[in-house]
Amino acid sequence: MTAELVLQIVLTVAAALVGVGVFGALSQQSIVMIMMGFELALNGVLLGGAAAWYFLAPQAPDAQMVVVVALVVMAVEMAMGFAATIAIYRARQVDMVDMATELQG
Amino acid sequence: MSGTSTAGGAAVLAVLVGLPALAGVALLLTGRRADRIAGPLAVLTTTAAFALAAVAAGDRPQLSVPFLGVVPGGDLRLSVDGLSAVLVVLVAAVGLLTTVFAAADLPADAARARFFGYFLLFIAAMLTTVTAATMPVLLVAWELMGATSYALIGYRWQEPGRLSAGTTAFLTTRAADLGLYVAAGAALAGTGGLVLADLPAADGGWRDLAAAGLLVAALGKSAQLPLSAWLSGAMQGPSPVSALLHSATMVAAGGYLLLRVQPLLAATGWAAAAAAWAGALTALVLGAVAVAQRDLKQLLAASTAAQIGFVVLAAGVGAVSGGTAQLVAHAAVKAALFVAAGAWLTAYGTKQLAGLRGAARRHRGLGAAATVAALALAGVPPLSLWATKDEVLAGVDGAALRVVGLAAAVLSAVYAGRVLAVVLARPAGEEFFDEEERGTRRIPPASTGVAAVLAVFAAGLGVLAVPAVAEPLKALLGVVGESSPTVGELVLSGGLAAGALTGTVALLHRLPEVAGALERSPLAGWVGLGRLLSPRPAMALARVLATLDDRVLDRAVEGVGAAARRTAAAAARVDGSVVDGAVRATAEALRRAGAAARRPQTGLLHQYYAQAAAGLGVLLVLLLVVR
Amino acid sequence: MNEDQGAEALALLPELILLAGAVGGLLLGLWTPQRRQGRVRAVAVLACLGSAVAAATALPDPAMAVFEGTWTIDTTTGVVRITVALATAVAVLLASASVAGHPRETEAYVLMLLAALGTVALAAAGDLLLLVAAFLLASFPLYALAGFAKDARGTEAALKYYLMGAFSGVLLMLGVTALVLATGTTGYPTLAVALPGAAAPLAAVGVLGVLAGVAFKAGAVPVHFWVPDVTAGTTPAMAAFITTVPKLGAVAAAFRLLAEPFAAASVDASLLVAVLAAASMTLGNLAAFSQTEVLRLLAYSTVSQVGYLFMVVAVAARTELAVPALTIYLAGYAVTNIGAFAAVAAAPAARTISDWTAAVGRRPWLVVSLVVILLGLVGTPPTAVFVGKLAVFSAAWDGAMIWLVVLAAVNTVASLFYYLRWITAGAVGVSAAPPAAGDGAPAGPGPTVGVVQRTALLPTAVLHSAAVASLVLGIGAGLWLAVALPA
Amino acid sequence: MLTDLPAWAVAAVIALGGLSVAAGIAVFVVDSMARATFALLTSFLAVAGILVALQLPYLAFVTALMMTIEMALMAVFMIMFMMNPAGLMPMTMVHNARGSAVLGAGAFVLLTVGIWTMDWPTRNGAVPADSTRQLGEAIMGSHMLVMLVIGVALFATIIAGTVLATARGRYDRFGAELDAARPDDPVPGGLPR
Amino acid sequence: MLLTVVIFLPLVAAGVLLAAPRLGGRAAIVLWVAASAVDLALVAWMWWRFDPGPSPAGVVGGPAYEVDLQWIPTVDAGYHIGVDGLSLPLLALTGVVFLACAVYSLRESHRPRSYAALFLFLQTASLGTFAALDLILFFVFFDLTIVGMYFVIAGWGHGNARRSALKFFLYTFVGSLALLVGFIGLFLGGEQRTFDMVALAADPPLANSPVAGGLVLVAIGLGLAVKTPLFPFHTWLPDAHTDAPAAGSAVLAGILLKLGTYGFVRIAMPILPDAWQRWAMVAVVAGVVSVLWGAFVALAQTDVKRMIAYTSVNHMGYVLLGLGAAGLVTPADDGARTIATVGAVYQMVSHGLLTGALFLLSGVLWSRGHTYTLDRWGGLARPAPVFAASLAVAAFGSLGLPGLSGFIAEFQVFTGALQAAPVATVLAVVGILVTAGLFLLALQRLLTGDTVVPLDEDGADRLSTRPEGGGTATATRPRTATVMRDLRGHELASIVPLLVLAVVLGLFPRVLLDVVEPAAAAVVQLVAR
Predict the structure, then answer these.
(1) Contact flag B605-A100 (C-beta cutoff 8 Å)
(2) pTM for the model
(3) What ipTM did this prediction achieve?
(4) Can the peptide bond before residue C459 be classed as cis, meaning omega within 30 degrees of 0?
(5) Cα C124 from Cα B258, distance rounded (Å)
(6) Which residue range(s) make up the domain with D61?
């Protein structure tokens, strides 16, 4: 099997993760579930970064750094998401985005 | 250009023109406080002007005041050459006499300062016109004359109709004046300058355009066909104004101008013919109109146009000396008649022929003067117009033109006869008096004096046709060699005039109802020429354009918005609140578009996501497709 | 190596000062009684001013890249540093009117400093990963600031802001990954070399993803949805900060991307940005058109302003006029936008235009300043934004985007509608209608007087200063540009 | 060019890839948040496995570790705040499912089409012997500033998160003048000053 | 330096007014009058010392009182001001009209301090526009006039003032943006990348690219045409005028419209000579259509102020006709084109004086009876002879009677333009007939006949807004007829000088022509390149 084929398989997996993540983020009402969707999409990003390093540019550390940064993004966004959720829950006993629609127009 | 041009001469010219103008402006600015001194001051001024005119006529000065600096002839240049010399003296003289008449004729409680202010201004404008050597100064004087005539005709603005007659006069003459503007442009284009005398040398088409412009301007000012009707309305003005306007000024100005530019007319060929025919036809048609009038001043007005028609005809056929003589003689004749008519109007309160029955017999002095003048008008030998008219007709080449001219001459005898038949008749009672205003029943000696002086000239100026006088006149005018009438022609015309006159008087004596029939004919209404000047088409056009302006142009701005609205309104919800006005429909359309633009902002996050994702997808496609 | 790193660290002195201000302020706050947190504010302001001074000192230095090219210091960075620092200082003062004495006052200032730091990092990033890191740093403090009041609207604002941010973060990471897949590198200089030869689909996804992330920070279409909601949900002072400061860095970042790595990419990034610009200005203006809430109106106005800013981004690589244009417009925008929000903050209780008009009452100078500011947003001379607009239009035309110039001109006219509504209400309505006649105002003269008294002092001062600064920056454009852009 | 991955590794990659996607789908299919959390964790772990196969053991380890902890936190969080944490009752909390599916599928299709149609560049050089060392050098060298900024970002996250999430601050505990001798906590404990 | 003082003195005065809230309303206006008077005196001094020089002055020849400072060096825009034969008359006109407005407003009672400040601000903006020798500086001042006038109309207008003000602002703002776009085109089109008018005129940009040059001219022309205004961009004008206060209308028509025409002669012609030549016929046609359209539509108006407003369209049409003819190099020689240009510039000054006076006179009507409707006035010459005389003089001046300034202008326009565009000129000449007709009709209706004055609607309104409880006695009071008082002192002192100046310029045109002619000749030469 050629490296390119494997790369394409791996990237397809990554694309699938992104696609599922996007679907989740767009379809879920619960804030936490939306965050999960993003995590999943970032999961795909992470995989893509790794694939880029291994199959295309192993000599440079940049792609590895992409993976690291993706991990950081996942972590901090999760943390921030929890904080935001708690804040609005405290203020309005709401954890669904559809219930936060006071601001519009 | 003959004559000397000295500083002294220039000063004379400047004072000649400037004195009446300044005096006039001073009177106008002082207003009613100057009413008492206005008359004497005006007489004094015109007397001085007359003296200066005489000096100028002998001195032939030139004067140039810088005006437009870019091209030659842009200055205000006045110069007195032969033609001007004659006209200057004429204008000053008639001005003086009519001023004297006005001082006597106007009621003491009238706004005399205003009257004499405009009167003097008018005289100044006419003096300027006849000395003008460049287009700018000609145009200035020409237009000022029109405007002051407006003010003079509308002098009694408190009475309905007076000012509107002035408006008509001003607008008609101004419509013709447009020709002068065009001519000025053409002069500049054709000669590179604005000097009047250079015009015949202009390049091809520009020369034609200049000639056409001047012709139109002159015909309008002189009330020639088809722009004659304003003259009828101009009779609304006070009688001294009529006397001045219809004799040596205003109406005469057109004739003068054509005489002045006769070389240009001749150079183009067609313009001369056009002028000749316009003059001849005016003489004929307006003569007929005059015959049909019931109002003395209207009759005189129409006859003025007719008589000036001969001057125009003269300019057309190249009979400059004859035209000049006709102009001068007619001035005296017509001034005398208007003075008489005015004096009668003041005395008897009417100017209807019916009311003036026997007027000449009531005050003999004035009556005699008027009779002499009327006879002169009729062309009866040996009075002035007989000779001058023949002098003009002598220059006519074509048979048709000559026939028309002779017919017109006959008509002048007819309408003069109408006047004479009335005023010389045995007086009736006073039942027709005071139809138009309350008469004073007295004729001031000054009026009689003025009329008498004018009558003397009306009678005597026939000498202008005597070869011994005519030849120097031709030399003075620089047109030596123009043909003079033969004895046969003189006899023929004299006979025709005398015959027509007596015939008319006799006919009217026998069949007074002929007059009534004439007065009911279309001729009495100036053959509908007034309709030509109707403002209605212009007003209609104006209203249409105004509607267009409001409905279309202004809305076009809004229409842009409306179109946008139709596209945007498909989904936009109705929003009733009004936002401050603005260009309403644009605002409305924008508001709808704005509402549409806010609709994505639903407040629902997942819709934000979906929209953002969709938008990004479109952008991705864009990126991939457009490279 | 060590010396180098020392010198490099010194090159980051303005950032270090900001960071020191943040950390120091936080520590100081730990031992500061609730009512005396003003000293933290002083520290924050001083840090900002110090940072600005340091940046200004470094401004004339030639352009350089430090930390292996991941951090670029050039005119753009310098101007953003100064503008951001000063804007943050003003925003801190502006915010103090509403947060003074708040238990978390210290944290508010610290977060503002951190966001400012992140903004500068955005502008200076010379590496995609640094861009991502700066994105995080510039975003998270703002989520907290947006929800600082912790009321229903504030938390909703924070939540929406955060969720849009998370989405954009994913897009940004996606884009970075795509670019790495395409080129194997994240540094701008190497990207610039490799991108022209990269496969177009990858480049497209990468460019789009990265720009989407940046556009989110800038508040541009199609990821602008947070702007109105967040602006309306939070306090005016915070809104001023959120809609002003991060945008400066985001636009600078976009500019740098377009000028260097994306300049010759196998996809037309320039066109993409132009479309973003066009969409932003149009949508922002249209949506603002019938707004009656002052904050939402200003929010949409900032969206449209970003559109104008993106015009110059679109031609970043095409004309040498772009850098001055960016510089002028950024500075002008910062001053003017803060001024506009200060006008709202001056009457904090007012939500609609008529409220505002009633609250301001007969205070002509306030109205004059507002008029100057709003006309500044329109781009009326001689304000700073006018000079900026002039430069931007020139640059866009020079960059062969005349259609964009025309569209921007049309949009400017459209924007006049809503700005004039406010201007007229302020300038004319006050006297034309008796105070009690305002539609939202309570009946009777008494409460209106109360509203009048409730105009806040400090924001008023900021408004006046911004108005003056707008004029001074516009009229004195030559002076400060000569300093900012040495030949 | 033949890949230098051994056949088993390729097989493992494919299998783990399938697993991660399947687990990812499961996240939004299962009817409880707790289960969703564990499905997500499964997906992460599968990806970590692929990372191992791609000779990135360190990153794989970090991923697995971080995600396990994160998912554990999430589970706790949901038990604290969320309705129906353990799937006690069936739930569907979706909106616009069809549109989202279209968009998600669209993204996937678009990316996949790209992936399978474009020409991929060739690898530049060989995989280094020690990928972890390479990463370490990058973090301490060429990408140091990135990590520094990330550090500051984490700092900012902590403060921001605290500000947003907690209602009580030092003035609640020690008084407005910070002069309370002992903290006024609802539940005794916590750190003294 | 003197020029800078002239420009900014009013602004400083405005600042003083705003900064001194204690100042009474009357004192504020007096201060306004004083500032305007001093400014006018300074302009007069400048005129006295102004020497057009032996060589053609113009833009390139080196303007007087020049100041050239760097402003925005990155785009080479500068604070470059100067005076030449084209701008000096307009500066003087600005001084005169604003002083007249100040005097006229002596009794303004509605927020007089702000009113005075706004006008002073407007004065600075107008002076600055006329003195600017840099495109951006020009634009800055140009735009500020819009802002100032907007507030004047919106704040002190009557009727539908805010709507009209908004329309005015939007419309002219569109124009100004087009102008800005055009300026940018000039900047980018030139080799030297500058906004400096002198440099651009010396080395015209886009000379070799007719399409680009044409487009830039279209943009600039559009901007100026809206301001001028030319058909069909004039529809903002009647509304703005109708609802503006009298002094505002006087400034709007007297000064602000000139910004547009001045822009043509100052910018479009010298800087885009090639394009101007190419498109001169369009200017001519636009001018002629404006002439006729303005005249005829004015004829149909029933509202005095709208009528005067439309005559402005007509008068500005003459200007364009003259300037367009100046661009038709092939068919016409230098002399004719120079005369046309001189006429156009003369028309700007003349129209400023006469229309200013006319609008102030219409303001007198409003102040007496709160209506401009022609039908509701009549026979005013009896109770108000001075008003009648002034109106008559202004009207005759406006219709182009010799002896008043309008004639000098129109005569030169026609005479100069005929060679270049005979058909157009002959058509345009008709305009003076129609204006004559409309003015004479208006005079006839307003001044003669039975004296008619409107009911005092203002008084009626005041009654109706009175609270119902206490107002029964007054509410039944019959509506009082307006007392048509003749011109009062301040009205006289503001209107008559304008008319006197119009007469002076009509009788002694050399006063102005000595200044204008060399500059116009220079422009004509520049266009002919």
Answers:
(1) yes
(2) 0.87
(3) 0.84
(4) no
(5) 87
(6) 1-100
